[in-house]
Design goal:
5-stranded antiparallel beta sheet, Rossmann fold, globular, alpha/beta, about 250 residues, 2 domains, Hypothetical Protein, Haloacid Dehalogenase-like Hydrolase, Chain: A, domain 2
Length: about 250
């Protein structure tokens, strides 16, 4: 079977900034008989938070499904149209919002303010360099904006091609409405020639919703959003209470 794991709040305990020992133990045991994939909003260069287990990973669903890789081989890659990004940036500047860009191998931010610092700290991410023109120089797979929920709603109405997925507090991933981890999982299982019933997916955030729904068995962490819990087949303990290990034991996968 193929097991897919979100990173933040699932593999990685953001509050304590560790991959729990029980998670490392569980994945090493799981690897003996199954294939392992990571499905994350992070790009490949941002996986340092889970460096203890990256060598166990066979497949990578990166940047919320914008890039899919089998080892080092790229299966799917879809950067965002530069013109569409320019329209977003125009409104971000109009409302004096901090924003950023995520490429395959690097990233940039428009400015550093408290919202940016706090959002990146929660995810244990390094602050990107400042470069407002990044999107004109490199391919962009995901945009970030730092704003209130009310402003995010206004931006959604103005830019219906994009979805705004909340991280924590005031950070949002911005990507095409057609993009999701769930859509990427479909591409991956088609590539592998397996069925969705052969997939077990773990997650906690709203960007995991489609993946949890798509998988044969969808497992929500105890710290997951209510939206994700509602669509899951099983809700385990939180990430800081050995939730991943307990779920794999519950289903006798290890």
């Amino acid at each position: 079977m193929l097991f897919l794991f979100d990173i933040d709040g699932t593999l990685f305990d953001n509050q304590n900034r560790i991959v729990p020992d029980s998670t490392i133990k569980a994945l090493r045991e799981l690897k003996k008989n199954h294939q392992i994939g990571i499905a994350t909003g992070r790009a490949g260069f941002m996986l340092y938070a889970v460096e203890e287990i990256v060598d166990l990973v066979d497949y990578f669903v990166l940047i919320n499904g914008q890039i899919v890789k089998a080892g080092d081989k790229t299966i799917f890659s879809e950067p965002i149209d530069t013109g569409l990004i320019a329209a977003l940036v125009k409104d971000f500047e109009k409302f004096n919002l901090a924003y950023g860009f995520e490429g395959e191998k690097d990233e940039a931010i428009s400015r550093v303010d408290d919202n940016v610092v706090d959002s990146f700290a929660v995810l244990d991410l390094h602050l990107p360099p400042v470069n407002k023109n990044y999107f004109r120089e490199r391919e962009v797979y995901q945009v970030w904006v730092f704003c209130t929920p009310e402003m995010a709603d206004e931006l959604r109405r103005a830019h219906p091609y994009f979805q705004f997925i909340r991280w924590f507090d005031r950070g949002y991933d911005v990507l095409p409405v057609t993009a999701s981890k769930g859509a990427a999982v479909k591409r991956l299982i088609n590539h592998l020639g397996i069925d969705a019933s052969d997939v077990v997916a773990f997650g906690d955030g709203d960007n995991d919703y489609e993946m949890i729904a798509e998988a044969g068995i969808g497992i929500a962490m105890g710290n997951a959003s209510e939206k994700v819990k509602a669509v899951a087949d099983y809700v385990t303990a939180p990430v800081d209470a050995d939730g991943l290990y307990k779920a794999l034991k519950h289903f006798k996968f290890i």
